[in-house]
Amino acid sequence: MFRIDGMSRTPVYEQIIEQVEKLVSLGIMKAGDQLPSVRSLSIELSVNPNTIQKAYSELDSKGIAKSVPGKGCFIAESAEDVLKNAGRKKLTTLRELVKELALSGVTKEEIEKAVEDGLSIPVEN
Amino acid sequence: MFRIDGMSRTPVYEQIIEQVEKLVSLGIMKAGDQLPSVRSLSIELSVNPNTIQKAYSELDSKGIAKSVPGKGCFIAESAEDVLKNAGRKKLTTLRELVKELALSGVTKEEIEKAVEDGLSIPVEN
DNA sequence: TAACTGTACTAACACGCATAGTACAGTTGT
DNA sequence: ACAACTGTACTATGCGTGTTAGTACAGTTA
Is there a contact between B108 and A119 (Cβ–Cβ < 8 Å)? Predict the structure, then answer.
């Protein structure tokens, strides 16, 4: 269910966070669904339990997951909303990236084509 | 001429690189123009000379600047081309960001508007 | 010659990521 | 009640990287 890229510069715990968010965004996981336990996932990914806990506790802080001692870690009711709002904030990043591309000489057409591609391609991974 | 954000997670030397690239992209600096000396810039930004050197030597590796012992560090002839090609590669980043936004529930219209904004707004900073 | 330039090198420190190990408390099924 | 699971907390350690500090050397220029 999860996959870690050991060569990536982004920390393992962040990779996990991103993947959980992606699963929710894709509708593969919904509010109430249980995430793998800290220990089982740590074994599956061959990482330390503390690393998983860090990811889960951060997901908890964000309002994307809810950890319940003794029971497990579950997707929170607020998850979808949180991600939707986070997405809106990323629009700023998009604006800046487009500006940056335009500055470095990439044509308007190339940019618009890339956007179109991103919008049309349904899903992979 | 340069500004460092100490709170940012991106290393100081990378911030310098980005700003040099931006200056070239904006046409503010052109091939042959001299960058501040390692020592003077280190004082101006209150960072270690080694940090500046790291930035300059990386800019040299990229083909954006050319360091000449005894003389200084200058914008390379190849700078514009290098940045133009780098920009094209960032189109992939753009595609992925758009896909990510679409996934998290941001509408096509919102995305296209952000792109339009990025394309239209002339320049600031 | 003096004052500037880039370059090279070692040592040290700080911080964050990750590991290792242990322990405690709540929940669940038998 | 017990065993087996859950999340949580805490300390200690190792490691990589970014940064600082200090010194030194070589080329350029006035």
Answer: yes
